[in-house]
Amino acid sequence: MRSLVLIGHGSHLNPESAAAVYAYADLLRSHGLFDEVVEGYWKEEPSLRQVLRTVRYTDVTVIPMFISEGYFTETVIPRELGLGHQGPVPPSGVARVIGGRTVRYTLPYGVHPRMSEVIVARAHEAYPDLNAEDTALIVLGHGTTRNENSNKIVYQNAERMRQSGKFAEVHAFFLDEEPKITGWQQHVKAKNIVLVPFFASEGWHTLETIPEDIGLTGEVTVFERLGTEGQTQTMYYSKPVGTHPAIAEVIVQLAEEAHGASDRGGDLERGHQDAWNAVWQRLSAGPLRIGEVLLRSMSGMVEIRHALDEGKANEGLKTVVTPEGVRDQVRLDEGGEYRPVHTLRNLARGWRAVLSEQDFPRALHFLYPAVVEESYAQHHHALRCTPWAATARRQTGIYAKVQKATPQQVETVASEICGGCLKTRLWADEPLHQTFFDGVPGGIPCAEACTLLVAEVREEVSGKRGQKSGPSH
Ligand code: SF4
To answer: Where is the DR2241 4Fe-4S iron-sulfur cluster binding domain (predicted)?
Structure first.
């Protein structure tokens, strides 16, 4: 039995940020190659600090859904997962036993050698007639002067493509560092050029900045050749590599190659199993309230609805029947605003989910990530909490600033953010004697400050709180 965990960046502001990770997780679930596929995020829930608690088995493979190695894959993710590793990840990955689970952490999918195949596939889609006589390939990376690893993979792929002999010329260009894509015509001689963005997803860069920077007019753009009159070069613009369906195969291969992966896999994780057994037991005794929802077991199915919709006729409610339906339903509040923290007291009303017993745990996980596991641990006095000082000390990069926050600044921000949240701040010494397992629906523990709070404290320390949000979100 094996669990696969896909790690994405996520966002406190953009509800679409996790879409690519969702899509791959859904695709991999449908392949059925893993007994469980779970997503975890830096800026969404379940957080990197929580996600391992939410997996069902003791054999866990964690894959960062990033296009290149860098700060997140080498520093942030290993630190937040508690891997006890910092710095470059070896090709065989990093294996650790954490809380009774064997966790294998791999390189990000973007550095797998099979990405070269994805580049060729994207190039063929954009220009089916490409040939080695008159077609140049440009592999375009983001590039940043902060981490040389982020451009290394672009150069590596360009070199592989050169050696493949499939193109007349192969070039690596970048948006944010030299050689910049804006100067491509000074380097590329071929008549036809395929431009493949080595980006993880379709977004601002692929849809706006890249086309604007080089003057693309669509999927095919004809340029006048530099220093000539009447001679042209035609550029074919492909979709980014990160959204190609073959990425799912790259992920599977990465997981198979993970250090020490065994065919046998692991067992059910005891604490996780106990927590969910306790939920089933409560449900068999009658309706169960957790946070803002009411759960009811009914002839082999489980219904979830807003507790304030209790007694409402089913016909008056929108019905969803899949965990993914629940996930999409609860991302926005009634006003259409994004809910980056799932336990904020603004769950929309007007819907019900009817789920099979098999689908129900995943749906509840999407609704209230890690709440079952953490509440059960709290119920048994086994939840370890992390005080604010320890959370602040752990922060690096732009978040290191929160170490300067005074207790009053933290409290000011927390009273506003946490004031709208169902959870009780154990990390700030608030007492929680009963949980929903004791019949107290709002009895949900917060073991440590979430990344939304950390980001807001950073804004407070910077004196920018309330202004237009910057990169910390
Ligand atoms: S830190 Fe505050 S807002 Fe974040 S999960 Fe905990 S209680 Fe809720």
So the answer is: 381-459
